Recover the amino acids of this structure.
């Protein structure tokens, strides 16, 4: 049996509960990524909940789009 195949029999809500996390909402996804930043920034980021980290990423991307849009004359 491939690794993790046995977990598919457990409903996602129950798996999340056992891990102490909230199940993903419709339209949400999760990924493990490597983040490179100054230690104090990374420590503060990692202290946030998963949902808060997602909000930081969303807001950061919006800010970058606005900033790059200004540079390109948009």
């Amino acid at each position: 049996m491939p690794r993790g195949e046995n977990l598919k029999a457990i409903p996602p809500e129950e798996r999340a509960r056992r891990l102490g996390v909230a199940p993903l909402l419709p339209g949400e996804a999760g990924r493990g990524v490597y983040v490179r930043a100054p230690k104090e920034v990374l420590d503060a980021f990692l202290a946030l909940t998963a949902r808060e980290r997602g909000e930081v990423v969303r807001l950061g991307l919006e800010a970058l789009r606005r900033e790059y849009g200004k540079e390109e004359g948009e």
Notes: The helical segments are 12-19, 39-46, 50-71.
